[in-house]
Amino acid sequence: MQALGWSLIALASFVVMEGLAWLSHRYVMHGWGWGWHRSHHEPRQGWFERNDLYALVGLALSVGLFLIAGRLQWPALQAAAVGVTAYGLVYAFVHDGLVHQRWPFRYLPRNRYLRRLVQAHRLHHAMHTREGAVSFGFLVAPDPRRLAETLKARRARQRGEMEAGHVGPRD
Q1: Cα(126)–Cα(147) distance, rounded to whole angstroms?
Q2: How wide is the angle at C-alpha 19 spanned by C-alphas 15 and 25, nearest 5°?
């Protein structure tokens, strides 16, 4: 396969991963997979949290793609595996390292884009339940001001529902 085509497939796979990450974060992690993800919305006890199991699932998928691509001698799938793996590495660096400071030193970003990512993710963590959260992407961050407005409206709606006697947010 030509280098340009291979590179475009890897890049496209990287971009598609942000959409898949958003969907899995919104509908799996904040849905039926909340049992693992809940630990990520609570104060961490030790170095690892149950949510880290999702990283192992992602690693297994990446390795699986490489194994299948090698077995079938399919360069396009190998390129896709590179894009998926690159996304996982960037995710680990940005999310676990930059946003959650899970590295041995403190770093506060000066770059506007990186600051925006950190702010959006902090707003995501403003909700400690699986419902009502905002900003499910990892590398594409909506405007933090709009996220804060949405979060404020959701909290007001939840307060109104609780005062009206409806059940509060699911845990």
Answers
A1: 11
A2: 135
- Residue 141, in any domain of the structure: yes
171 in a structural domain: no
**Residue 96 covered by a domain:** yes
Tokens coding 159: 């307060």
Query: Among the ranges 57-66, 109-118, 155-164, which has the highest mean pLDDT value?
Result: 57-66
Q: How far apart are CA 134 and CA 121, in angstroms?
A: 8
pLDDT for 166 equals 63
Task: Kindly tell me if the per-residue pLDDT of 35 is higher than 90.
Answer: yes
The boundaries of the domain holding residue 16 are 3-163
How many domains, the chain?
1
- Mean pLDDT check: name the lowest of 13-22, 109-118, 143-152: 143-152
Tell me if 112 is assigned to some domain.
yes
Determine contact, residues 106/39, Cβ cutoff 8 Å.
no
Q: Are 70 and 82 in contact (CB under 8 A)?
A: no
